[in-house]
Structure formats: structure tokens, C-alpha cells
User: Which sequence fits this backbone?
């Protein structure tokens, strides 16, 4: 059950989903920062953890698959 949950969660961590979360953080920061400042900052830090910062230079796999 845990493996299925982890697969489901990782499939939702797409670039589009992360962009939506970033937009949400931006919107709530503009409108409700005073009310949720600690949670907003925690979400910003968590979001940065999941974003790809460097693309891999070489694909992972076997060369015969090219």
C-alpha cells in the first residue's frame, strides 16, 4: 500500500503541478500573508526542494536504447 501511495504522489509532482503551487503561493502571499506567513514560508521552502535545478547531462539507461 505504501509503494502505491508513493507512486501516486510522485506522479503528481509534475512541472505543471509545481507551477500551480508556486502561483498559489504567490496569490496567497499577496492577499493573506499576515494570516499565513509561517505556512507560506514553509510551502516556499518545500516547493524549492521538489523543483529540478539542474538537468542531467547524460540520460540514465543503456546505450543500445538510443
Assistant:
Amino acid at each position: 500500500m505504501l509503494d502505491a501511495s508513493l507512486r501516486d504522489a510522485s506522479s503528481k509532482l509534475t512541472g505543471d503541478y509545481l507551477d500551480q503551487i508556486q502561483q498559489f503561493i504567490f496569490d496567497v502571499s499577496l492577499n493573506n500573508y499576515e494570516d499565513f506567513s509561517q505556512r507560506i514560508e514553509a510551502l516556499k521552502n518545500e516547493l524549492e526542494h521538489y523543483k529540478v535545478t539542474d538537468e542531467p547531462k547524460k540520460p540514465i539507461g543503456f546505450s543500445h536504447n538510443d
